[in-house]
Design goal:
Blueprint lengths: L1 E4 L5 E4 L10 E8 L8 E8 L1 E6 L11 E4 L4 E7 L8 E6 L4 E7 L5 E8 L6 E5 L8 E5 L1
Antiparallel strand pairs: 1-2, 3-4, 4-5, 5-6, 7-8, 8-9, 9-10, 11-12
Bound molecules: calcium ion (2 copies).
């Protein structure tokens, strides 16, 4: 199916449908290169069961075999940025059930590992990751 992307100036884009597989509840998606092949990948948070799913882009409009990482709580909004400066996008996710943020490191080969969890002062409802202060290190902002 072809759709039209308003933020892309109305260019035609292909629509890719990722089947939920029944009882899975997808929360939010993002795009970034977590497989370090120069091609964008689709990243989806899922909170029933709680997990992060990564579908590698094939560069031709399709998606390859997914990587799956079980996470505690209820992962919801996510953001992608290379937080450890290894050239591979990493994923940060809010956990609305436990009021915390998970950092998931991608190894660039399809592997995912939850490396750090930070508590938040309230239920995190939005998240952004980039280099905010120009020191060369990734920063994370969380909104409640
Ligand atoms: Ca990729
Ligand atoms: Ca990285």
């Amino acid at each position: 199916m072809v759709g039209f992307c308003s933020p892309c100036g109305g260019r035609a884009v292909d629509e890719i449908v990722v089947a939920s597989g029944g009882e899975n509840v997808y929360e939010q998606g993002g795009v970034g290169d977590v497989t370090a092949d120069g091609l964008p990948d689709v990243v989806i948070s899922q909170n029933s069961p709680s997990a992060l799913r990564v579908f590698p882009g094939d560069g031709a409009g399709g998606l390859g075999t997914e990587s799956f990482l079980s996470l505690p709580g209820a992962p919801s909004p996510l953001a992608l940025f290379d937080l450890d400066a290894d050239g591979v996008a990493d994923v940060v996710l809010t956990d609305v059930a436990a009021a915390q943020v998970h950092v998931v490191r991608a190894d660039g080969l399809g592997g995912l590992s939850a490396t750090v969890t930070w508590p938040t002062s309230d239920v995190p409802r939005s998240i952004a990751a980039t280099g905010f202060d120009g020191d060369g290190l990734g920063d994370v902002a969380v909104g409640d």
